[in-house]
Specification:
Blueprint lengths: L1 H6 L37 E2 L3 H9 L13 E2 H39 L4 H19 L1
Antiparallel strand pairs: 1-2
Helix pairs in contact: 2-3
């Protein structure tokens, strides 16, 4: 609870007296520091899964899945994930634009042929009424 009181400022001021106000949510002294990650020359290693290997190859970090080593630096994996995420977004944008184009063309074609949902609905209702009258 005391950590919460030190970090949360509902009015823009710190709740504990004696501390100056800053734009950060918590002071750096409140955040625990990882001793191993702060050593110079230390890089986190990650054992890539099959999907991570696919992402690394798709992001063109390696030529094939077999070339991906057993451990990859976390920075390299994050970079590959970012480029794959951006590439996926571009693909989704292109597919959305293609879908819009197809729908606009099909709508104009239906308008030229005088096909609309209201006409189709009226035809179905007339057909159902004719079937109901025939069955009586």
């Amino acid at each position: 609870m005391s950590l919460l009181l030190r970090c949360v400022r509902p009015t823009g001021r710190l709740l504990l007296a004696g501390r100056s106000s800053s734009r950060t949510l918590c002071h750096q002294s409140d955040v625990p520091v990882d001793k191993v990650a702060s050593k110079p020359g230390f890089t986190r290693k990650h054992h890539p899964s099959n999907f991570d290997r696919f992402i690394l190859v798709w992001a063109k970090k390696y030529r094939s899945r077999e070339e991906v080593p057993l451990t990859v630096s976390a920075k390299e994996l994050d970079s590959a994930r970012e480029s794959a995420r951006i590439r996926t977004c571009y693909i989704m944008i292109a597919l959305t634009l293609a879908g819009c184009l197809v729908m606009a063309i099909s709508g104009k074609k239906a308008a030229r042929e005088k096909k609309s949902l209201s006409n189709r609905n009226l035809e179905q209702r007339a057909k159902l009424k004719a079937e109901a009258a025939a069955s009586d």
